[in-house]
Amino acid sequence: MRTELFTREPDISKVRVTDNFWKQRMELVRTKVLPYEWDALNDRIEGAASSHAVANFELAAKLTVEHKVGTIKAGSVRTEQGQAVSSGEENGFEGFVFQDSDIAKWLETVAYTLMWKKDAELEKTADEVIDLVCAAQQEDGYLDTFYIINGLDKRFTNLQDNHELYCLGHLLEAAVAYTDATGKDKLLKALIRYVDYVDGIFGPEPGKKKGYPGHEEIELALVKLFRITGNKKYLKLAKFFIDQRGAEPNYFVEECRARNDGKPYTDDLSYYQAHKPVRKQEVAIGHAVRAAYLYTGMADVARLTKDDSLLETCERLWEDVTKKQMYITGSIGSSPVGEAFTFDYDLPGDSIYGETCAAIGLAFFAKRMLMIQPKGEYGDVLEKLLYNGIISGISLDGTRFFYVNPLEVYPKKNHMDARFRHVKTERQKWFGCACCPPNIARITASLGSFLSSYNDDSFYTHIPAGAETEAVISGNRVGIAVEGNYPWDGDITVRFEPEKNTEFTYGIRIPSWCDSFTAELNGVKIEPAVSDGYLKIKRVFKAGDELKLSLPMDVKIMEADCRVRSCFGRVSIMRGPVVYCLEEADNGPDLHRVRISENAEFSAKEEKDLNGITALYCMGFKELPGEGELYKPASARRFETIKLRFIPYYAWANRGEGEMTVWVNRY
Question: Model-level pTM?
Answer without folding.
Answer: 0.96
